[in-house]
Design brief:
This protein is mostly helical. It is built from 7 helices and no strands. Helix 2 packs across helix 4, helix 5 crosses helix 7 and helix 6 crosses helix 7. The two termini are about 15 Å apart. The relative contact order is 0.10.
């Protein structure tokens, strides 16, 4: 899912959200039950809502900072490429954000942000025919060459080769 292999075993529950890129290999070996839910089915008060609410979360203040940062990155990753750009939205310093992300995800806040940007690029490259230069602009890069270098640094390949 989203260009990462996921190991599933009998009894696994796998959540796939809209917009996530997925590809099933060796589908002939799969014996699954597929349930599709609309947004309305997941709303509070519905029979499925307890499943959504039961998703594991890391408790504590670092988690709150991480959750605010992750939400802000999700909303603004195409416009804001530096952790310091999120300080006001998260109500925390870049250093506090970085510590929270390291505790929650085991990587720096900058790496988390960069991976989200490159994930969006890979999703769009896989699902649209958008030229690389246009995609670079959509993702907030002033020059397509900067985007290509960024993509190569994170993935090891150029955007079109991915």
């Amino acid at each position: 899912m989203d260009f990462r292999a996921e190991a599933l075993s009998e009894g696994s529950v796998f959540w796939l959200r809209p917009g996530q890129v997925h590809h099933v290999l060796e589908a002939s070996d799969l014996h699954v039950v597929l349930l599709l839910f609309t947004g309305a089915a997941l709303a509070p008060g519905t029979p499925v809502a307890p499943l959504v609410a039961a998703a594991p979360a890391v408790p504590g203040p670092a988690s709150a900072v991480f959750q605010r940062f992750a939400a802000a990155v999700e909303a603004d990753h195409a416009r804001r490429h530096h952790v310091r750009d999120y300080e006001q939205a998260v109500h925390a310093s870049a250093r506090t954000i970085d510590r929270a992300v390291r505790r929650a995800r085991g990587m720096s806040a900058k790496r988390f942000l960069d991976e989200r940007i490159v994930l969006e690029a890979r999703r769009r490259l896989a699902t649209t025919d958008t030229p690389v230069a246009a995609l670079a602009a959509q993702l907030g890069f002033t020059e397509a060459t900067n985007f290509v270098k960024f993509h190569r640094r994170l993935t090891g390949t150029t955007p079109r080769a991915a």
